[in-house]
């Protein structure tokens, strides 16, 4: 299933309303190419300059990653920076920006072919590294990469969260009062360099007598879901344990204890930089796995690191 991106089509009236705060005769505005220049076209009272040194205000259409804003804050720290959409802020009068793909009036025609836009960006990356995107082996690469991203980063779409069936402990006539463990493999991507890290995980939990149990195949699906985003391994173990703990605690007693140990090889260290083995181990323990030494020891002994 493809990730569903919520689009918000910014109207011309939205642009004019957003500019009310800065569209004043005393302002001399520099528009950041190219989005900021488009915004400047809607100004009625303020003066527009192509020389940033003359400006008393720098304007852009959107602050997304924040990179452009940081650059201008560094080069022109005394000149205020304004954007119609600032995703560093949680929301505005219009919507929660962080969860939407913003389409400005000057982008409407292009937005209809959003997939083409993504492929064009991948083509530019190929050119940046020195490749020829027109050669036979690369002609269809942008399309393949786009479709691959939709698959391997499916964890951003909450609708892809696996359907989880839980069972009351003892409902099948057998009460589980011992440590249950599982192990498996995982693949994820480092959020710092967007290169893979992968390895093994060791999961275990001690169900409450009046609590719920979960099938081990469901554990693997939850691991895969959380791994299907740009991640750091420290967050990954935390999110997996907290999710499964909450699921098993639904309307029943919480598990007595739970934990996960994750071992990963990080290509951001193996392939680049120091180019040394990038093996990393992270652990998340909860309940008796954290407070009871014997329970903790039994779990860790089962983790064949």
Q: Would you give an account of this structure?
A:
- With 305 residues, this protein is an alpha/beta fold.
- It folds into 3 domains: 6-109, Rossmann fold; 116-152, GTP Cyclohydrolase I, Chain A, domain 1; 159-302, GTP Cyclohydrolase I, domain 2.
- The protein has helices at 12-18, 35-40, 67-75, 108-111, 114-128, 141-152, 216-227, 233-248, 267-270, 288-291, 293-302; strands spanning 6-9, 28-31, 47-49, 57-63, 81-86, 100-103, 166-168, 180-190, 196-206, 212-214, 230-231, 257-266, 279-287.
- The strands form 4 sheets. Strands 11-8-9-12-13 form a 5-stranded mixed sheet.
- The model has no long low-confidence stretch (mean pLDDT 88).
Looking at this protein, list some descriptive labels:
305 residues, GTP Cyclohydrolase I, Chain A, domain 1, GTP Cyclohydrolase I, domain 2, 3 domains, five-stranded mixed sheet, four-stranded parallel sheet, 13 strands, 25% strand, elongated
């Amino acid at each position: 299933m493809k990730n569903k991106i919520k689009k918000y089509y910014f109207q011309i009236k939205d642009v004019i309303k957003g500019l009310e705060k800065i569209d004043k005769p005393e302002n001399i505005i520099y528009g950041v190419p190219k989005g900021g220049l488009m915004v400047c076209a809607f100004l009625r009272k303020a003066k527009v300059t192509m020389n940033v040194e003359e400006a008393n205000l720098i304007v852009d259409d959107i602050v997304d990653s924040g990179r452009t804003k940081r650059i201008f804050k560094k080069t022109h720290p005394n000149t205020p920076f304004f954007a119609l959409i600032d995703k560093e802020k949680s929301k505005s009068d219009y919507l929660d920006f962080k969860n939407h793909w913003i389409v400005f009036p000057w982008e409407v025609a292009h937005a209809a072919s959003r997939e083409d836009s993504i492929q064009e960006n991948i083509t530019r990356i190929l050119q940046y590294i020195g490749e020829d995107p027109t050669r036979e082996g690369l002609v269809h690469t942008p399309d393949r990469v786009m479709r691959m991203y939709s698959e391997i980063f499916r964890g951003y779409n909450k609708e892809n969260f696996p359907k989880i069936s839980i069972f009351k402990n003892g409902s099948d006539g057998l009460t589980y009062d011992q440590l249950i463990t599982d192990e498996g493999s995982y693949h994820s991507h480092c959020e710092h360099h967007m290169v893979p890290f992968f390895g093994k995980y060791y999961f275990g939990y001690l169900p409450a007598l009046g609590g719920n149990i979960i099938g081990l195949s469901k554990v693997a699906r939850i691991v895969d879901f959380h791994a299907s985003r740009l991640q750091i391994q420290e967050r990954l173990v935390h999110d997996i344990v907290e999710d499964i703990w909450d699921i098993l605690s639904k309307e029943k007693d919480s598990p007595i204890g739970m934990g996960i140990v994750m071992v990963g090889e990080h290509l951001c260290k193996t392939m680049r930089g120091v180019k040394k083995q990038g093996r990393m181990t992270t652990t998340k323990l909860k309940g008796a796995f954290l407070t009871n030494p014997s329970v903790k020891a039994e779990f860790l002994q089962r983790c064949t690191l």
